[in-house]
Structure prediction request, 234 residues.
Amino acid sequence: GAVVSQHPSRVICKSGTSVKIECRSLDFQATTMFWYRQFPKKSLMLMATSNEGSKATYEQGVEKDKFLINHASLTLSTLTVTSAHPEDSSFYICSAREPTSGSYNEQFFGPGTRLTVL
Amino acid sequence: AQKITQTQPGMFVQEKEAVTLDCTYDTSDQSYGLFWYKQPSSGEMIFLIYQGSYDEQNATEGRYSLNFQKARKSANLVISASQLGDSAMYFCAMREGRSNFNKFYFGSGTKLNVKP
Prediction:
């Protein structure tokens, strides 16, 4: 299947700093990527849908100014957690649709980024 | 209302036995897709199986099969001949509609423990 990478896999930062997480589709072009957040032992919560060349669509309750999403190319979307605080500590997962993957449009997930804010 | 409901927070199964993980869904769309993903402790999401709303036969992928009961809106995952490596979180998900841009809804997950 198609491969999606995330970088970094783990990040620890001080409160108040900004952290950028990259999501790349390695062997296909993804016009749409999704960003999820997952708390320990909980389900994936969709944060936003990232569309190449346009503004991201955020889910209700997700702060746009807090979680900046940029989808500048067909293979790269970035999530920046601005002025991170301990409550932003979580597991962040991106996914991408591979348009030619078949009739059911499976999502391919990145390996996730574990963010810890001290 | 919850789009996807998984009522089993945790399940135990003996190695080599079969286990069923429950999933019910709620949608008014005629066209939708149902997915199961496995998430081991490493965190990656591994696609297991897919069932389309118009598929008449239950999907199967190796040891995984999906018991699709459309009238009951259920899409239970059956794992046959459980292995120790099957111990993980399992998530049921649904995509409404056919568009490539439609978002997925995930259930709360079931943690499966396979006992030797």
